[in-house]
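Lecture 7 notes: from sequence to structure.

We start with a single chain of 112 residues. Read the sequence below before looking at the structure.
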Amino acid sequence: MAVWTPPGKRNRVIVIQTSTESTDSYGGTVHTWSTFATVWALARPLRGRDLVAAQAAQNLTELVFNIRYLAAVLPVMRIVYGGKNYDITAVINIEEANREIDIMAKTGLSEG
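Now the structure, written as tokens:
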């Protein structure tokens, strides 16, 4: 069960981005990321693990970002934090109260 987070604990700035598709001059599809919102967050590590794939060491990091409630945050978006791109895996409206949300995200494999 998630616990309410006091606003003063949200001391990290994160950027939530959304992907858009456009067509280039050759008819190909181009994916670009644009800022959806820049917000204060509490970043909590969920877990980290090292993987060995194709003989290349990789590091998978999972974090939970707690922010004030923001409608329309979706798992197809990503978070930019600390110079890394985090793929959103889940968005949880704490107690369905529309006061705050936990955003579960990971980095390391696809890098957004």
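The domain at 8-107 is CATH 2.40.10.270 (Thrombin, subunit H). Keep this in mind for problem set 3.
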